[in-house]
Amino acid sequence: MINYDDIFNTAQDAFLHFKKTSGKIKANFLRQIASNIEAEKDKLIPLASDESNLPEGRITGELGRTVGQIKLFAQIVEEGSWLEAVIDHADPERTPAPKPDLRRFLTAIGPVVVFGASNFPLAFSTAGGDTISALAAGCPVIYKGHPAHPKTSLLVGSLISKAVQESGLPSGLFTHIEGGIDVGQELVKHPIAKAIAFTGSFKGGKAIFDLANQRTEPIPVYAEMGSVNPIITLENKLGSDIEGLAKSFASSLTLGAGQFCTNPGLIMVPQVHEKTFSDAVKKEIQEIAAAPMLHEGIAKAYYESLDKLKSKEELEWLHVSATTDLIKAHPALAKIKAIDWLRDDLFQEEVFGSFAIMVVYEGAEELLSIAQKLHGQLTITIWGEDSELEQSAELITILEEKCGRILFKGVPTGVEVGFAMQHGGPFPSTSDSRSTSVGAYAIKRFARPIAFQDMPEKFLPDALKESNPLEIWRTVDGEFKK
Amino acid sequence: MINYDDIFNTAQDAFLHFKKTSGKIKANFLRQIASNIEAEKDKLIPLASDESNLPEGRITGELGRTVGQIKLFAQIVEEGSWLEAVIDHADPERTPAPKPDLRRFLTAIGPVVVFGASNFPLAFSTAGGDTISALAAGCPVIYKGHPAHPKTSLLVGSLISKAVQESGLPSGLFTHIEGGIDVGQELVKHPIAKAIAFTGSFKGGKAIFDLANQRTEPIPVYAEMGSVNPIITLENKLGSDIEGLAKSFASSLTLGAGQFCTNPGLIMVPQVHEKTFSDAVKKEIQEIAAAPMLHEGIAKAYYESLDKLKSKEELEWLHVSATTDLIKAHPALAKIKAIDWLRDDLFQEEVFGSFAIMVVYEGAEELLSIAQKLHGQLTITIWGEDSELEQSAELITILEEKCGRILFKGVPTGVEVGFAMQHGGPFPSTSDSRSTSVGAYAIKRFARPIAFQDMPEKFLPDALKESNPLEIWRTVDGEFKK
């Protein structure tokens, strides 16, 4: 029996202490997590690889990314300017009423419930971006381990708890919980929970979003629910490098058996190049071996989605395996006319795996109609010559409305962890387009502003003290300064 | 018949143009609105006063505040750093994969539906903080006029539309609509609406919040739903100036007939001073004449709320008028023991008007229990000597969790419009504690981040161009610079 009240009360106690902990101590704590993970990598890598069917090379890279991510947040909280400190000085002489002293900064929002992703057993799971950015903000985390990699999750969880202890912080700062949907629901509903982070399917994310909004006190839900990440190809650019672009597309499509939230599941191709481009893609795909998916349930869902689409007469199958597989994903590619694609939303539903629909369009006007019809996406990519982009101003304006990140080169897979990353787009790709789950700004999800009016200097948090002891960037009487 | 599709399609067309409009043009447009309002003030002030029952002096002040607010947002968009521009430069030499060029900033979220407040016919209505911050962010506004001041709303609406025209901007930028709850619902449900701003009752705000979350595409709702704004008095401080503090409290309580969202409807008083303080408050209240409320419906609701409370035996009525009034609010004050207050949430429900409950507490421990029981508030005020505050660290920590602004001097009414203001607290005081509806940061509610990956320099928005033509503060490769 899980005692939810115990878990959340302990988290809340930890929170009231931790939210006031200095950036320096928080940074050291985060670095301790990173170093605990690195110390166990010889055990972690084979374990995560075994549980996820992802090759050790990929998991090694993911571990590096996880550690890098932790260090980025350590750097951010140590530096401190993320707190958005703002000071408006008093003016006792102002008429008709004196002006008070007002100081504002971001404070941690409270205990956060995190649901990890199956497709990133490290970087978006137990010590992944959501957990680490919540801890960095000053929030305790109640983490529900993903059943697809239970041992990896437990091990990483123990490394976080070890870091909590080594840093002399309260144990309620991190709790690892195992369980099914019912357990997840109890976590979302608990009155002490103050925010939710989730990475996974639309169905799962939307259910959590709805549940959180039905609470007596609704709370923010940051659900990253996937996307088909359209690639739009313009005639001249595609014509100038059909084979190269086909290769880029095919390798992005099949990377990690297509199990990325930024996997390109939709590509718009001008009719004039349709045949040569699809031939080139087919050639690439044929050379890529079917790769095992994360688990049988995901492989089953992949083939079921394909079966559903196979009943659609509008689709012409350019490449599809005759047999399904219990675990491996055979890449697949289907083609559709723009006019047919426009008629049915089913053709832009995500199929998790290495499948894409190629939409053949006839001209700029049809492309505009496609853009207008697109649902919210994490990413949209447009491949065009400069002169073509110049003539596509209206198209680009509409595409910007449909995504969180727009690419003009390369492929959407491979999400940079940095300051400028935006990994979060309009609904249904995420439940909150105002946030990112990757990169420096992910920390902002777990904070809210608070203002202190006429608080005596000695009680003010360091970030707001007159002397600026943290030496952070602040807005003072409307001016940015250090 | 209102043609909602027409209204929203026109707004969307305006949006696609306006979101790319320069800060300079937006600033001039906002200043044009301000100057149109100032030009009509001799007409506006008596009209708003007549429709709201608020004295002309108060409306004159509110007009000044409205204009000041508009000029603040003009200054913010003209300066431009609010866009949070972030640049991570490419590194083509990086291994194993080259690093792309990534640039991120805030872009306008889309057409916004604004519901004005009855208690601020100017500053939180047609050209109030919500409308102006949405326009400043680059969003068209569909404004539903408040039925309590229809002529004022229409006149201000026409002044905004005039400014749109004078600035050569598309007319869909601002639409004024009149109607009841059904009209409001249609506006919230329209698929083109991308955010809602609301100021009013909990019931109204929560209904809008729920409706917006039930849409196929849920959208952000910024509902400011009121608060009881507790004042906590500590023994020594209160004892040192009983009459002065009673005067401050009574005047804040009765200001504008108590019709402020920051009106203090709850005050915690230590038992030792209970008698002298309540006598002093009574004396003050008796000298304050009953003032007309905004309209009869509000006066009726005020007296009905009092009647409901009168059935509660735990309350002792210190001051209450024998007769009710069709329009005027007679101030009222009731007293309750902390132990009784703790047992029933009814005693912290907002009564809109000049009524407060005085909670008599016995010591620090009881005060802590009260703090823990408090719902989310816009503001909490604590009056204590430095030495008392020093001993109240735990109390203050808990109070911070319950509000958006905490005051150590003065009264919660009188909300500064500046950079450091936070007017938005935990639920149920607002639907989104991460936002403020007053002050510079209100603009952030109507924007979302977007990242441009490898966008050719010439297509980049000015805010993200390498040469920084706007001369704004940006984060470049992790460093703040201009």
Q: What's this entry about, in short?
A:
Chain A has 16 helices and 19 strands. Chain A has helices at residues 4-18, 23-39, 41-52, 56-79, 129-137, 150-166, 181-189, 202-214, 235-240, 242-254, 274-286, 296-310, 338-341, 364-373, 386-390, 393-401, and strands at residues 86-88, 102-108, 112-115, 141-144, 174-177, 195-199, 221-224, 231-233, 266-270, 291-292, 316-319, 328-329, 332-337, 355-361, 377-383, 403-407, 447-453, 474-476, 479-481. In chain A, helix 2 packs antiparallel against helix 4, helix 2 crosses helix 6 and helix 10 (242-254) crosses helix 11.
Using only C-alpha atoms, the radius of gyration of chain A works out to 24 Å
Question: In which range does the helix fraction of chain A lie?
Answer: 25-40%
| Largest protein-protein interface | A-B, 77 and 77 residues
Morphology call of chain A:
globular
Please tell me the CATH architecture of the largest domain in chain A by its name: 3-Layer(aba) Sandwich
How much of the sequence lies in strands of chain A comes to: 15-25%
CATH topology of the largest domain in chain A: Aldehyde Dehydrogenase, Chain A, domain 1
How does the helix and strand content of chain A classify structurally?
Answer: alpha/beta
Count of helical regions of chain A: 16
At the first level of CATH, the class of the largest domain in chain A is Alpha Beta
Organism (chains A, B): Belliella kenyensis
Pfam family, one (chains A, B): Aldedh
Protein name (chains A, B): Aldehyde dehydrogenase (NADP(+))
Keywords (chains A, B): Oxidoreductase
